[in-house]
Specification:
123 residues, mainly beta, seven-stranded mixed β-sheet
Length: 123
């Protein structure tokens, strides 16, 4: 069964760092995780998910939402079938549910979502 499994969320203190993982498993991913771009989103209560970072299928080129001011970094390891979101200098406004998705670069109908993880930043 194809799935993206997220981990790494939790309750943290102000200004610390945290790394989220998005691990892919299942037939398409085992053979070709390198054909999927990965994106991270976050969702605050009662709001739509907002895109925060993306990385290309090779794990080389990234882009990010300007409001993050470089605090978050995305990486992708195609050997491990895992993408990561490194979050630094966490602030209360970073409290949200974080989600990842993987989308095939040639077959966009092949898109999968993680289950989401909660991050709570305590001041």
């Amino acid at each position: 069964q194809v799935q993206l499994v997220q981990s790494g969320g939790g309750l943290v203190q102000l200004r610390v760092s945290l790394r989220l993982s998005c691990a892919a498993s299942g037939c398409p991913f085992v053979e070709s995780f390198g054909n999927y771009l990965v994106r991270w989103y976050r969702q605050h209560p009662d709001l739509e998910p907002e895109w925060i970072r993306g990385i290309d299928s090779a794990g080389v080129s990234t882009n990010y939402a300007g409001f993050l001011k470089g605090r978050f970094t995305i990486t992708k390891n195609n050997t491990e079938n895992t993408a990561y979101l490194q979050m630094n200098d966490l602030r209360p406004e970073d409290t949200a549910v974080y989600l990842c998705d993987a989308k095939h670069v040639l077959h966009p109908d092949q898109q999968y979502w993680g289950q989401g993880v909660q991050v709570i930043v305590s001041s």
